[in-house]
Amino acid sequence: xxxxxxxxxxxxxxxxxxxxxxxxxxxxxxxxxxxxxxxxxxxxxxxxxxxxxxxxxxxxxxxxxxxxxxxxxxxxxxxxxxxxxxxxxxxxxxxxxxxxxxxxxxxxxxxxxxxxxxxxxxxxxxxxxxxxxxxxxxxxxxxxxxxxxxxxxxxxxxxxxxxxxxxxxxxxxxxxxxxxxxxxxxxxxxxxxxxxxxxxxxxxxxxxxxxxxxxxxxxxxxxxxxxxxxxxxxxxxxxxxxxxxxxxxxxxxxxxxxxxxxxxxxxxxxxxxxxxxxxxxxxxxxxxxxxxxxxxxxxxxxxxxxxxxxxxxxxxxxxxxxxxxxxxxxxxxxxxxxxxxxxxxxxxxxxxxxxxxxxxxxxxxxxxxxxxxxxxxxxxxxxxxxxxxxxx
Length: 392
What we know:
Layout: H1 6-15, H2 20-27, H3 33-50, H4 57-61, H5 69-76, H6 78-81, H7 85-90, H8 93-97, E1 103-104, E2 112-116, E3 127-128, E4 139-140, H9 144-154, H10 169-176, E5 177-178, H11 183-194, H12 200-203, H13 213-219, H14 229-242, H15 250-256, E6 259-263, H16 279-285, H17 289-307, E7 315-318, H18 321-334, H19 340-353, E8 355-357, E9 371-372, H20 382-391
């Protein structure tokens, strides 16, 4: 169904920035003076960690929240600004120290967008950067060096746990925003590079232990007719055992799939704590450049589809859609000048044609597990899902 409101379309076209470089220059929160300063500091700390340098005041004060002055005021300067100390104490070490992730994939060409709340991590959020009562069961890491030693101990597969590998600004930037490769391309290439004398018995157990998280939990259904990790594993196994690498077709399709992961906010945590009065909700409540960035990407991609006949129909699958909806509405209002009634009209169209959600914690991107928003009894139409599969 085409979007027919010419007045709304006119406003969207007027605010639309077609040029990719200009869009990034105006909206990328990691290009600000504050963000560049933190990225540079993180790289320097990585070098010191690599060389086993001694702990200094600098290592104790680092926080990714400092990329936004508002967050510094809310969470770091609690004593000076008399903000709620309890709020500051909620913030886990993961948020301060864990390497953020914001965009993975080419959002210019992607036909499917997995829109999540924030990047997960293997370190529990009970690790904090300040003192607690021992009876609370919470733990303390005094600085970023201690944090990454703990991270290394608890994780098996997260490459961002290797602090010493992020010793340049380029490496850090390409991790936070990676437009060159989708997450499933990264995971598939990692899997292929790990193969050592593959046998049928060995291949029976692949994609089964959490190492390739996004393929295992989310994406495998997109690439098989019957669906499911068993069918996906079978296809991979058959190609590896019966074809030369240059003859791979199914594997090649997975690597080249046009998908993109977006995080509503980029700071790492085990659980985002988005309820009223929690630190995550406070982060989201502030309409900062950091928080609005991926919502701007979503709106821009929809406009591309509406005004460019050469653009495929994008599909967006959301976790915590109510949080995303609030930020998308802010973008429509503040960037494109839509009135409240126009926002309702536009989002109603998106919810009937482009936006879907998961009914529970199961993240499988399948025809049976994507539901129209707001979540109701209607699944994504079979034809729509089939067209999505073919567009990848």
